[in-house]
Amino acid sequence: MRILGIDPGLQCTGFGVIDTEGADMHYVASGTIQTSPKNGALLPARLRILFDGINEVVARYQPGVAACEIVFVNVNPQATLLLGQARGACLTALVSNDLSVAEYTALQLKKAVVGHGKAAKPQVQEMVKRLLRLPGLPGQDAADALGLCITHAQVSRTVAAINRVSSLQARTHSAYKNGRNY
């Protein structure tokens, strides 16, 4: 299964792509999609850059499923609204390409990748590097996106194992506490 992870942000959206084969995970690609108000781009143009960038990544790597980070509410409501709009552009691009999208919080990502929910960004980067056997540290946004891929790979294996042994089928949208799966 090929998984695309998206760490949404208005200035910098991270993406990561991995292939999974059973418990084995293999790095395919990662990077960022940058937008900047410094170039005079207004919000709608920046959202278009994100939408087009995600479409390009999907066309190039042909993932079978996507995972996206759930936005947290931060102290600045204006920043939260802008982040929500960037996330909406990313989600729209994913579903317009007929991808099913699973959503995970930053806490879930950190627990799955590092082992505890209060991990710092450098810890996430280091664990992603180790789990995917990368030669160097990925950037912070790309590491988060790859971490979402890893999280989804682990959750998918768990749900599949539950479904194999239980006569009651696990509901994937509730399989990982507070995550969402569409």
Biggest β-sheet description: 6 strands, mixed
Average residue pLDDT: 89
Shape: globular
What is the H/E string?
EEEHEHEHHHE
Distance between the termini: 17 Å
Strand sequence of the main sheet, in spatial order? 3-2-1-4-5-6
* Cα gyration radius (Å): 16 Å
Uncertain parts: none
- Secondary-structure-derived class: alpha/beta
Report the portion of residues in β strands. 15-25%
Alpha plus pi helix count: 5
Helix content: 40-55%
Count every beta strand, where a strand is a DSSP E run of 2 or more residues. Answer: 6
Write a short abstract of this structure.
The chain is α/β, with parallel strands linked by helices and 182 residues long. The chain has helices at 43-61, 77-96, 106-113, 121-131, 140-165; strands spanning 2-7, 12-21, 24-34, 65-69, 100-104, 180-181.
Explain what this protein looks like in three dimensions:
With 182 residues, this protein is of the alpha/beta class. The protein contains 5 helices and 6 strands; from the N terminus they run E-E-E-H-E-H-E-H-H-H-E. It has a 6-stranded mixed β-sheet. Strand 2 (12-21) and strand 3 form a beta hairpin. The chain is globular and about 55 Å long.
Keywords:
182 residues, 6-stranded mixed β-sheet, 5 helices, 46% helix, globular
Task: Summarize the topology.
Blueprint: E1 2-7, E2 12-21, E3 24-34, H1 43-61, E4 65-69, H2 77-96, E5 100-104, H3 106-113, H4 121-131, H5 140-165, E6 180-181
Parallel strand pairs: 1-4, 4-5
Antiparallel strand pairs: 1-2, 2-3, 5-6
Helix pairs in contact: 1-2, 3-5, 4-5
